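Pasting as-is:
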Amino acid sequence: MKNIISYVAVAVVLFFILSKGISWWVHYQTIKENDEKVAFAVKNNDLNKCAIISNAISMANNLTDQEALDRYKRISLENYCTPINKIDRDRATMLSAQEESQTLQPYEKKSYSESDLSAQLSFIQLAAVAGATYPDFKVKNPDAKGIIQFLATDVGEQFQQNQNWFSIKVIPRDNQKDWRSLMVEIYYQNSYEESKKFTFDACKVIWSNIDDRVPPLIDELADRLVKYENENSAAQTIHTRYGYTIGLDASRWQDGYPVVCFVAQ
C-alpha cells in the first residue's frame, strides 16, 4: 500500500513538473515567434505591421509577460501604431522623462507677433493637434519614414485617381522629433471649387489651433490662386513668412488629383 502511495505521489510530482515545463515551453515559443514576426514586420515596413504588433501585445497580456508587453508597447509607439491623440500616461512612462517632456506634452497655443518665427512644437505635438482636430479619422503610418497620416473614414486606405480623398499628413525631419511639414490633400470629384474650399478650410482649422498668423496667409494665397486662374496660369502658389513656407496647389484637380495645402518649416 505504501509503495502504491509513493508511486502515485511520484507520478503527481512528475506530472506537475512536466506540465510546468510544457507551459514554460509554450510561453517561450509564443513570445519568440511574436518577437520574430514583429521584427520582420518592422524591418520590412509590412503594411500589416500595426496589426502584428497589436496581436503581440494581446498575447503578451494574456500570458502576463510584463517584459514582453512593455517591449511591444514601446515598439508600437516607435512605429506610430498607437493613435497619437490616445497616448496615455502608461505608454508615456516607457519613454525617458526628457523625451516625454519634449514630445508628449500637449502643445499650448501661444500668441505670436509679426516679428516671431514659426511656432515651437515637436513633430508628435503637431500630429497630436491634427489628430485632436479630426478625432474620428483613421491613423496610419504609410511608410518607413515616420510619416503620420490621418484619413477620413469614408475614403479608402490608398489614394485612387478620380476618387474622393481626404488625407492629412504630418511629416517629420530625419531626427523624428522635429516636424518638416503638414500637408492636407482633398479631392471632391463633384466640384473643383468645393475641393479647394474644403482643402484650404481644413488647413486653416488645424493651424488656428497652433498659430493664428497662418490662416490669414492661407486666405491671402487662395486669393492669389484665383487671380492666377483668371489669367489662365497654373493654379499653384507658394510663399514664405514667419518662418513658414506655405503652398497651395490645385493645378492637377482636372486630372483627378487632390488639391493640396502644405505648411513647412
